[in-house]
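Field: COMPLEX_INPUT
Field: COMPONENT_COUNT = two
Field: RESIDUE_TOTAL = 626
Field: MODE = joint
Values follow.
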Amino acid sequence: MSLTLLLVQGLNGLQLGILLFLIAAGLTLVFGVMDFINLAHGVQYMVGAYLAAYFAAQTGSFWAALALALPAALVVGLVLEFLVFRHLYDRDHMAQVLATFGVILILNDGVKLLFGSAPLQVPMPAALTGGVPIMDGLLYPHYRIAIIAGGLATAALLWWLVERTKVGMLIRAGATNAPMVAALGIDIRRLFMVVFGFGAMLAGFAGVMAAPILSVEPGMGDNLLILAFVVIVIGGIGSVRGAFLAALLVGLVETLGRSMMPDLMRLVLDPSAARQVGAALASMLIYIAMAAILAFRPAGLFPVRAA
Amino acid sequence: MRELGRILGRELPALLLLGGLAAAPFIGFGEGYMLTLLARMMILAMAAVSLSFIVAGAGLVSLGHAATLGFGAYAVVILDDLQVVDALFVLPAAILAAAGFALVTGAVAIRTSGVNFIMITLAFGQMAFFTASSLSGYGGDDGYTLYARTEVNGARLLDDRLVFHFVCLGALVLTWLLCRMLLASRFGRVLRAVRGNPMRAQALGFSPYPYRLTAYVIAGALGGAAGFLFANATEFVAPAYISWQRSGELLFMVILGGLSGLHGALLGAIGFVLLEEWLSHQWEHWRIAFGVLLILAVLFLPGGLSGIPAQLGRMLRRG
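Field: COMPLEX_OUTPUT
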């Protein structure tokens, strides 16, 4: 494997990691602060992508679509919170899993009903269609670099919000001990709503950014949801810092594993078997990593909740 | 005699459901399509009962139970490819494969608890899923079509639809009886004590780990037997059968039915399959209605389907 290819795959891994972080950040906060398992977080990413596709088709501009899709994703999140989720905070995890699975079914088929099951395309913004030459004849797209930059900027903003503002302080306190925060006179329900809406918007933002490079289709959030759960479990539930590092780790392992595993396997197996086993092992790598981390550090890499 | 009456009374819901399944072919549900649906229902109920045994009995909420069915089903496939097609070999192999998988993964998973247990069983389930996808000799992602159903001591017994119906029913009854007896035994009481308060159980001198692992392996073995039947029912096995969504569906059957007893899992599986079948014929986008019903069931039926009578009773008493 050449160094250039490694660089390209590394950048792709970084970009997947950034998208994962945007989804996992909301998930880990909702999970950490409210002790609420939201399986429907993945479809909020899908909703973001569909909103981007819809607004892009209406306005003809990616930037206008971005500007309209974000508040719309926030509204969708708040409506879901109002209709379904707020009635589940006091219930056990199994009830939450069941009800939020219902939300997945509704939204996955809902977008099929509204937009059809064929994948939609979202045009890339014109200013970012070019690429950076990495070597002769190989361009790395500007748009993917923009995703990495946008994601890193969002991560920085999130860090500032969580670590340096009063709301952030309450969120951190809530993740450590929610009943105590409520006992100190904070309206924890309103805090929940803020966290929830914000998390939905972050997932929607990831969906908008992914829309031009992936096909927008029903069920696109399901596999990413599982990856995001892997991320928050590895990172430690409730920890934004843990989610960031774990997301980059998962993104890189997933992408590099897929491109390198078959080659590595070729050292010990014949080529066709190496391709098979390599592909399977590459898909499994992050799950193996998660199982290993959970076996030795059951609370993840950056545990938040006091034991 | 009075003891027997009391047991019968307590198990009435389960006995009614099983009796209904036994009578179904003779009261107008005997044609091919209905029998296929009933077989699917009973096999999924078998998996749901074994899952309910560890979820309600031991507090082990596994999101990877479909993988044990996968091990059972792929044991049938691999032996079919080797032209070993007699149930005398295939069924024990399916059960052992699934139990072995449960033993190895359970040994690690049971060290964790709560949400992390859900996630680690999910991780092992995904590993099984990707392993199955990579088995290109057995169709990879596309799946593998069996040459024929498994023979029983050289006879093509399972080919007869009615016989297969009662084989599935027998397996479901055995699964239910086994789980029921285990839960009522000393073993089951220790499991419940550990679920309720691990620390107290330990103080009483019970180490939770071996009990929980044993329960997990038993559930896995039963899942393997269900997988054996599933492969024979559809005569086709694909990795999609062991995707995490499948494990999720099994868990939903258990929760939808209610966790107050094993009959909840029976009711959940039957209700789930019937609702899915009925709705999917009504509307192309039936999953929307299915999702709405799921949410309503969670919000308004905290005890699941099996908790409805008690809930009605409470409402009536309140006036």
